[in-house]
Amino acid sequence: MRVLEFIPLAVFFILYKLYGVIYATAGIVVTTLLATIINFLITKRKPNNFALFSTALMVLMGSLTVFTSNSAFIKVKPTILYSLCGLTITGGLLMGKVFIKSLFSAFLFLNDRQWRIFSIQWIAFFLVAAISNEIIWRFFSEETWVNFKVSFMPLFTLLFMFLQIFLYRKHLVIQNDR
User: How confident is the model over 128-150, as pLDDT tens digits?
Assistant: First the structure.
């Protein structure tokens, strides 16, 4: 993740502490859109489909939260995102395709079996993340959910990614040498 992608999360956390979840949601929607646009202007590349989908889902669920003053929409957004990611990867595998390869092939050089295992690991990650989000937002306080979203999930994601780097370190592509 680039630093630019953490700014919306930081804005969400600060606005939540100052004004509550509705203002925080409005802030994360605006900063997510701005971060996506700025990233495009800096890199001169269209964001990948995952980034576009995530941004669109943020705008949709965030807008529903703000316009209805119902925080359930923003709280369920991570569950929807994680579930759809896991289901997409699963569907690809069932169709004999490895969708995740398009996101990681610039960094990893794996054979077909390794790509399937890598995909299953990401499916498991998304499943755990979706279930965790559901449990936290439904059975704990809003503040606990915010802390989970802002602190735990980014750390959990980074830990998972470092574990993947460790497991596949022999297959990392360095300077596009294959």
Answer: 999 999 999 999 999 999 999 99
